[in-house]
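WARN no homologs supplied; continuing
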Amino acid sequence: MDDRIKAMEEKAETIAQYLKDQIFVRIFSHNDGDGLTSAAIMSAALKRLHIPCHVTNLPKLEADILALHEDSFYEDTPLLFCDMGSAQWDVLKEYPNPVIILDHHQFKERPETPYFLNPEDVGLSGATMICGAGLCWMVAEKMDPANIDLASLALVGIESDRQLMISANELILEKAKNAGIIDIRKGLRIGDGLLSDIFMYTLEPYLDITGNPELIEEFLSGLGLSGKRAEDLTSDEMKTLTDAVSRKLTEKGCIEGLEACVGETYLLNNCLVRNICDLSGIINSCGNFKEYGLAVSLCLNDPSALEDALSYYRQGREILIRSIAESVPLLKDGGCINFVIGNDMYNAGETASVIVRYVNPEKPVICLNVSDGFIKVSGRGTRRQIRQGLNLSVAFKEAAEAVGGRGGGHNIASGGSLPAGTEDDFLKIVNEIIGKQMAGGGADDGPEKQAADA
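OK structure emitted
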């Protein structure tokens, strides 16, 4: 085993033993797919030990937001932050509480807590090698080996964050396989159901037929797959479909999109929604509609959550497909970046991801969403751009702070918030920073270079 993974497991053991001694834990977790599965893993692990907890999912971690929840914990209550907290030590250090951070984002100031678990702290990439849910599962397994079953949720977090199945992620996958938690289907990585429905709403892959029923029927009929369901395809039929999609993406030069949508689909034997592509999409959609409790309940296999969660999934995908179709024509060349400015976009992060993978992979894509008096920014890049030197986390942090906002995340995917009216200045600064990064000859030999080369 990699010594860096061993170091993380040792820290996970320390944190697990600390949590097992508590009588109550206050959990704050991010509100995306990774954060929601993180919250589910930790709440399940604590509940199994009869340790009460209170979970809140947050869109971001800032002093004024955390202050709204101060009446829900005492000064000695352990505060557990999942999928957030590494870059917000300036906020957290103001509290006298014991602080536990299980996070994979980059940080500038290392949190001064003995209960800090982050792959970047040991030289692994938090962008591709392990996510928040993976870290939470590491701790949960140390709390009780029976929590191996929660590895299915860790895999959903990995899927939600579009990480690679390498390093620590690969270790989680192997343990899940050995425990019989998952089965594997090879070929196109898509959900279950009618192929015509899947290509109407799937984002992986996003094709020139997506959202257009006539073009989808023409495509499937030409392959002899009209009326077929993904889960019923023979190996030859799956190969036919996979080859056809691969040709479309290769012709457009969407190599990383191709790598993302062809491979292994994990079928979760202990989840209400078995296909990992479906479950990840459902949980993310619940998060987009701020139905965080519903998402966590579904993760914990509450049958009463399924119908409503599926409804939000269908609504969310319809809105998102329309939003992306409307955003693509608005894409502008910003020099070293491409960008879109929109109002009340449904999901700027997903939009940026789809555009950089499947529409225009040549430059990093930044979406600026003007909503409720402030601007949310989301940026996405590719591993090829990382090899050229791109680090969106650094670029977003510097550019956002220069205009009075906050930003950060990963080298390949970052976000932030800006004051209203600062979008032009932000774009100018971030373009200059990224231009210098990518003219510098590429990443060094650290975790970001390892991730880009994987």
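The chain has a mean pLDDT of 95.
OK
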